[in-house]
Amino acid sequence: MNTLYSPSALKAELNAKGWRLTPQREVILKIFQELPQGNHLSAEDLHEQLVGLEQDISLSTVYRTLKLLARMGILRQLELAEGHKHYELNQPYPNHHHHLVCVKCNKTIEFKSSSILQVGSKQAQEYGYKLLDCQLTIHAICP
Amino acid sequence: MNTLYSPSALKAELNAKGWRLTPQREVILKIFQELPQGNHLSAEDLHEQLVGLEQDISLSTVYRTLKLLARMGILRQLELAEGHKHYELNQPYPNHHHHLVCVKCNKTIEFKSSSILQVGSKQAQEYGYKLLDCQLTIHAICP
DNA sequence: TAAGTATTGAAAATTTATCGCAAATAGCCC
DNA sequence: GGGCTATTTGCGATAAATTTTCAATACTTA
Questions:
Q1: Quick one: which H or E segment has residue A66?
Q2: Residue A2 falls inside a structural domain
Q3: Domain boundaries, position B107
Q4: Which end of chain B is more exposed for a tag (fewer CB within 10 A), N or C?
């Protein structure tokens, strides 16, 4: 899984696969890196933030970039109960976490568990897959 | 999590919350109960199966029923990599399983892990949530 | 069995995400 | 640094998935 990405590290990783570092990609990654722990953004959320920052990035590019960064393992795609995908930075071990979601009110609680990442790594390894992300999602109803 | 639902058990569970047992809901649950292990259906898939069975259930009702049964904890909603939601029966312990998904080719492998369900139950309990479902999704790239 | 409310079907509307194409630009080589 | 080429962007159009509206129908309960 990923470590912390400086712009140049991002560039290296992109170029290694024939992709390019663009200002749009850099800005989007920066936003996720500066997002407070526990926050996550949908494509629309992100687009609005960018407009607020006077960074004019089209919605298409937002979608394309989110997909790309998730496929690189830099972002993780969350499927919470909101009906659309959310994204957050895919952080390595000590910050790696999972989600407990109330399907009624959509409230989401983060929690950590070292054993889950172990199970995930082991499974991926067993089948020879390259691990990108590993997330436990608990659907439940809050009191 | 759920046990096996007979039509009358389904009726009881529905009525307890002011909902009704309809032939549509009964047929849809039956289809999932007879689905071979490892299969899962999208709303469209299910609708096609129903048409094939000469069960004329509208697509709206299919969507509504899938959502309802998932919220009751009878079905689980899977977010694999296909771009639309899939559903399967939410089975208790010995059949409870998780998914390893290749984000490139969409191939999905099921695997079991008793420890994950334990982690999930513990977390839900800790916050006083009523557990509906608990699934580990591993995103990875196949060889 | 009748009353009252939940549910259904059909079509329209929304929401979410992708695509095609021309213009812009990052990376690379000299 | 300037030019070449392939990648990326923005825009609008489009597609796909899901929800909503509303009148008609059908469960439940008393």
A1: helix A59-71
A2: no
A3: 7-140
A4: C
A125 found inside a domain: yes
* Contact list, B81 vs chain A (CB under 8 Å): none
Contact A124, B101 (CB under 8 A): no
Evaluate if residue A38 carries a pLDDT over 80.
yes
Residue B2: pLDDT band by 50, 70, 90 thresholds?
A: very low
Rounded mean pLDDT of A31-53?
Answer: 92
Look up the pTM and report it. 0.90
Question: Mutation test of the interface with chain A: which of B103, B105, B112, choosing the one with the most A Cβ atoms within 10 A?
Answer: B103
Residue A93 counted as domain residue: yes
Rounded to the nearest angstrom, the minimum Cα separation between B101 and chain A is 9
Interface of B with A (CB under 8 A): 70-71, 76-77, 79, 100, 102-104, 109, 111, 113, 115-116, 119-120, 123-124, 127-143
Which chain A residues touch B122 with a CB distance below 8 Å?
A: none
Neighbours of B87 (CB within 10 A): 24
In a domain, B29, yes or no: yes
Per the structure, how many domains does chain B have? 1
Residue A73 backbone phi and psi in degrees, to 5: 85, 10
CATH number at residue B26: 1.10.10.10
Average pLDDT, chain B: 91
